[in-house]
Each structure stands twice: as C-alpha cells, then as structure tokens.
C-alpha cells in the first residue's frame, strides 16, 4: 500500500496510535485554539481602545530667557496634551505586559489541557478497556464472563449490553452444541457396543458355526440400520438449524392430502386406516420439504403407537390468522409430566421398545424445530389410555393473486355467431 492511499490515521506516528492520545491532542488543540482566539480578540479590543486618543496639539516654538541665562527655544503644549502623552506611554507598556502574560497563560493552558485531556480521555475510555479485558479473557470453552457495566445508559453502556447479549447467545449456542454432541455420541455408543460385543463373542467361540455367524450378522445388520437411521436424523436436524431457504406460498391442504396418500399403505399394513380432512386454500409461506417432513414424522409416530383396528386422523384448517395441522391417534397417550419432554432431542418413552424399533428419539424434536423456523408453534393434547393429538400452527398468509393470463374460449366462433344471430 502506497503512502498516498493510506488514510490520515495510518500516516500518524506510532505514538499517536492510541485513541486516548489522539483524543488528548484533539482536546488540547481545540481548547488552545479557542483560548487563543478569545485572547487575541480581547487584546485587539483593548489595544484599539487604548490607542484611540486625541492627537497632541503643539504651539509654535518661543525663544525665552530663563533665570537670566541665555535665550532658549521652548515649545509649549497644553496640559491636557501632556497628560494624554503620559497616558499613551502607560497604555503601550500595559499592552506589552498583557501580551506577555497572555502568551504565558496560553502556554500553561496548553500544558494543563494535555494533562486534563489525558485524564478525561482515560476515564471516558475505561469501559472500552473493560470490554477489551473481558474479550481477551474469554475462551471458546467458557463464555460465562460478562461485562455487566454500571453507570449511565450512554453509548458505551449500550455497547457493553450488546456485547453481553452476544456472549449470552454464543454461550447458549455452544452449550446446545456441546449437549447435542454429548447426546449424539451417547446414542451412537450403544449400537457400537452391541456390534463389538456380538463380534467378540462369536470370534472368541471356537465352536461357532455358520448359524451362529448368521445370527450375529443379523444383529449387526439390524444395529447398523438403527445407526443409519440415527445418522440420517442427525443430519436432518443439523440442516434444520439453518433458516428455510426455499420458502414460498404453499397450500397446506395439498400437503396434507399427499401425506395421507403416502402413508396409506403403511397404515393398512399395521391394521389402521387414515382419515384426511382439509379445507382447500390454507396458504402459508413455508418450505414445502420441511412441512412434508414434519407431517411424515407425526404420521409415523401416530401409526407406531395406534392400536390395530383404529384410525389415524389427519386434519387441517384455519383459525383466525393461523393455519393448523393436527394428527390424532388412539394410542396409549402420554403422561402429563412427559408432554413437555416429548419435544426434546433423544427423548423416548419406552427406551427398550425404541431400541428394538431402531428409533433415534429425534422425530418430534425435528418437528418442533421445523415449525419454529416458520415462526409457528406446536401443541400437544394427550390423555392416558385415550390417545394423543399433535397440532402444528403456522402464520397464515393471503392467497396468491389469480392468473392474469388470457381467458379461455368457452365456445368456438360458429357457436358465437349463431348465438349472436338469434
């Protein structure tokens, strides 16, 4: 970078790199300039006033003899003129003293302003130093430190509050990430332990035959499938952490109909049937893929818990400024103390059954995350022994405008001609 392209601050000497020094110099220069301007104005005004005297009028020289001595040429002046001359001389000396004292006072003022400006700048910039120290002490694994600034609600106080709020968000994000990694590693450790244990048993048994190897192979395959499901759910969960990038106007009623058709065969295989009720024109601004995933998770959960011979009801409608989608089953229901935990990651009511079915415990958590990304909310109504109803709420939007293309011709020209002739 050439010297011509550098900014003014970059061209300053190294000792001027501190903001405190620059503020001190700026404060002193401004104060010295204002004081100098005031002193100069006072000096000019006083000087003009003191020199504004009437001129001394002199008479013609006269030859006189004093005390019998030789004649001398004497010039007479008026008494008032003599007094004015003395006053003028005194004024000139007073102006010289005023000029001397003014320069001395300005020099002392400049030195004092440097000291006072340095102290004031240090006090003003003290909160910034505190922010810097906190930021320097913070580590990636410990974001619990806060500035917690006291004092007036000025710009620096607002900066510190903004920094604290950012630290709180980062702390929450890192804590969520650590918890997610811990839970995910715990969930992956179990199937890995199953695979390792079965392989060690069959390899350490000298009498193991083909049937034993086949049985272990089936266990390993089933466990690997469960791990694959868990990894897929983890990847889906991670993708849902980002805001929906393919959002657009969609009719929820059409997605409800598609979901009912997609899961009809699965429901019939389990001895169930699906009832779909949806009013057309339920428009929302959403990611269609995300909504389909949420409906799929809810339907899979309902089919898994609903007893054979019952119905799973999928419905959608509009209530005020909200579009709702509900999935109802007649399963065992959920206890009141568990109705909040069902939305948590890796929560499973019957862990033994969940492991046997290869479930990861992320399905409802993914549903809640998808709905939250669309600025909606989830709701659960459940009673033990009667079943559960999961409701998703999305902000409704106005329907898209009608197509402004050409109106289709309903009759050919001959029909129109005959109609006009009649």
How would you portray this structure in words?
This protein has 422 residues and is of the alpha+beta class. Among the domains are: 7-64 and 75-124; 246-395, Heat Shock Protein 90 (2-Layer Sandwich), CATH 3.30.565.10. Helices cover 55% and strands 13% of the residues. It is built from 11 helices and 9 strands. The chain has a 5-stranded mixed sheet with strand order 4-6-7-9-8. It has a two-stranded antiparallel ribbon with strand order 1-2. The chain has a two-stranded antiparallel sheet with strand order 3-5. A hairpin with a 5-residue loop joins β1 (62-65) and β2. α1 runs antiparallel to α2, α6 (252-262) crosses α8 (288-305) and α8 runs antiparallel to α10 (363-373). It is elongated and about 160 Å long. One of its GO terms (molecular function) is phosphorelay sensor kinase activity. One of its GO terms (cellular component) is plasma membrane. Its EC number is 2.7.13.3.
Net shape: elongated
Q: Give the strand order of the largest sheet, numbering strands 1, 2, ... along the chain.
A: 4-6-7-9-8
* Count of β-strands: 9
Secondary-structure element order, N to C = HEEHHHHEHHEEHEEHHEEH
Structural class, judged by helices and strands?
alpha+beta
Alpha plus pi helix count: 11
Share of helix, binned: 40-55%
The main sheet comes to:
5 strands, mixed
- Could you report the average pLDDT, rounded to the nearest whole number? 76
Question: Mind telling me which CATH architecture of one domain this is?
Answer: 2-Layer Sandwich
The CATH fourth-level homologous superfamily of one domain: Histidine kinase-like ATPase, C-terminal domain
Uncertain runs are 353-360, 409-422
User: What is the CA–CA distance across the termini?
Assistant: 88 Å
**Beta-strand residue percentage:** 5-15%
CATH-defined fold name of one domain: Heat Shock Protein 90
The CATH C-level name of one domain is: Alpha Beta
Radius of gyration: 46 Å
């Amino acid at each position: 970078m050439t010297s011509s392209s550098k900014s003014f601050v970059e061209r300053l000497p190294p000792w001027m790199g501190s903001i405190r020094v620059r503020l001190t110099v700026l404060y002193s220069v401004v104060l010295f300039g204002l004081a100098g301007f005031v002193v100069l104005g006072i000096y000019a005004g006083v000087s003009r006033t003191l020199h504004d005297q009437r001129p001394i009028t002199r008479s013609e020289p006269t030859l006189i003899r004093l005390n019998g001595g030789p004649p001398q040429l004497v010039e007479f002046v008026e008494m008032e003129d003599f007094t004015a001359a003395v006053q003028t001389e005194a004024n000139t000396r007073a102006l010289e003293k005023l000029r001397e004292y003014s320069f001395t006072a300005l020099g002392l003022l400049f030195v004092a302003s440097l000291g006072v400006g340095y102290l004031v700048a240090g006090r003003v910039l003290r909160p910034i130093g505190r922010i810097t120290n906190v930021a320097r002490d913070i580590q990636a694994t410990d974001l619990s430190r806060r500035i917690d600034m006291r004092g007036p609600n000025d710009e620096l106080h607002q900066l510190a509050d903004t920094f604290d709020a950012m630290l709180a968000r980062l702390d929450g994000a890192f804590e969520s990430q650590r918890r997610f990694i811990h839970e995910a590693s715990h969930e992956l450790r179990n199937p890995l332990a199953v695979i390792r244990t079965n392989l060690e048993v069959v390899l350490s048994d000298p009498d193991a035959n083909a049937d034993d190897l086949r049985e272990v192979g089936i266990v390993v395959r089933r466990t690997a499938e469960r791990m694959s499901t868990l990894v897929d759910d983890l990847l889906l969960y991670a993708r849902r952490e980002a805001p929906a990038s393919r959002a657009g106007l969609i009719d929820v009623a059409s997605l409800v109909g598609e979901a009912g058709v997609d899961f009809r065969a699965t429901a019939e295989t389990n001895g169930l049937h699906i009832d779909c009720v949806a009013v057309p024109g339920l428009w929302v601004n959403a990611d269609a893929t995300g909504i389909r995933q949420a409906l799929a998770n809810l339907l899979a959960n309902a089919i898994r818990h609903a007893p054979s011979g019952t119905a799973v009801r999928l419905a959608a409608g509009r209530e005020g400024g909200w579009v709702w989608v509900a999935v109802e089953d007649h399963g065992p229901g959920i206890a009141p103390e568990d109705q909040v935990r069902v939305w948590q990651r890796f929560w499973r009511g019957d862990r033994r059954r969940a492991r046997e079915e290869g479930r990861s415990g992320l399905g409802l958590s993914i549903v809640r995350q998808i709905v939250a990304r669309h600025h909606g909310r989830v709701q659960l109504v459940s009673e033990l022994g009667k079943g559960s109803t999961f409701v998703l709420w999305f902000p409704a939007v106005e329907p898209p405008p009608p197509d402004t293309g050409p109106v289709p011709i309903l009759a050919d020209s001959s029909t129109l001609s005959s109609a006009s002739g009649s």
